[in-house]
Amino acid sequence: MGLLDKLFKGNSIEISSPVNGELVPIETVSDPTFAQEMIGKGVAIQPSEGKFYAPADGKLMALFPTGHAYAMTTKDGAEILVHIGIDTVKLNGEHYTIHAKQGDDVKKGDLIVEVDLEGVKNAGFDTVTPVIISNSGKFSKIEKKSGVVSAGDTVILLTQ
Q: Which one of 5, 36, 84, 94 is at 20 to 30 Å from 64 when CA atoms are compared?
């Protein structure tokens, strides 16, 4: 890559998986808000364990008291929503243990929420976890990965 390529290449932002699991097509998520990408483009992860981490460095802008969802903004301006399970707000925090607080500055890999996935499933809820870029319209290119992922692996690559 030459100097001019480097100068004119858009800045890339890596968004990591917040959890160990397997990427599934976002279109298959049972909630149409996520499946039709109404609030932004993203990926969905079927978690294989219950520890959910910060997917990037940034500020935790929202952390629901129920623990079922959190949102953060990176220093580069990407707005990320992690929604742990579908309709899990109805659990009122049962099976969720919060390890951070709204307003925290977080680093990629910081533990945010722990979830008893079996408890959530036994209560009749799907644990699939959409990871959404809520301001995806501000990026010129959004690349989504597929396959089995570990927490910290890049799952979305944004180009400004």
A: 36
